[in-house]
Amino acid sequence: MRAWTWTQWTYHIPFDDLPSKPFDIICRATDTNANSQPESPVGIWNVLGHMNNAWHKITLQ
């Protein structure tokens, strides 16, 4: 595996450990030099989608 490759992963959360109210799951990559993805695409967004590497976030209810 190279430092820049995509990696698919899974994480299993036991049902009893889930909060009773909505919560967010966020995925953010960090490289070996401690550089990480920006929280938001604001400032990096472009029409072609190049370098649009902001955090991925979903809300579970």
User: Number of helical runs?
Assistant: 0
Percent range for helical residues? under 10%
With strands numbered from the N-terminus, the spatial order across the biggest sheet is 1-2
How does the overall form come out from the CA principal axes?
Answer: extended
Query: Could you list the spans in which at least 5 consecutive residues all have pLDDT below 50?
Result: none
Output the radius of gyration.
15 Å
Task: Give the integer mean of the pLDDT values.
Answer: 84
Major β-sheet annotation: 2 strands, antiparallel
Q: N-to-C terminal Cα separation, in Å? A: 35 Å
Quaternary state of this entry equals single chain
- Note the run of SSEs as H and E: EE
Percent strand: 15-25%
Q: Structural class of the helices, strands and pairings?
A: mainly beta
How many β-strand runs?
Answer: 2
Cofactor: Mo-molybdopterin
Keywords: Metal-binding, Molybdenum, Oxidoreductase
GO molecular function: heme binding; molybdenum ion binding; molybdopterin cofactor binding; sulfite oxidase activity
Protein name: Moybdenum cofactor oxidoreductase dimerisation domain-containing protein
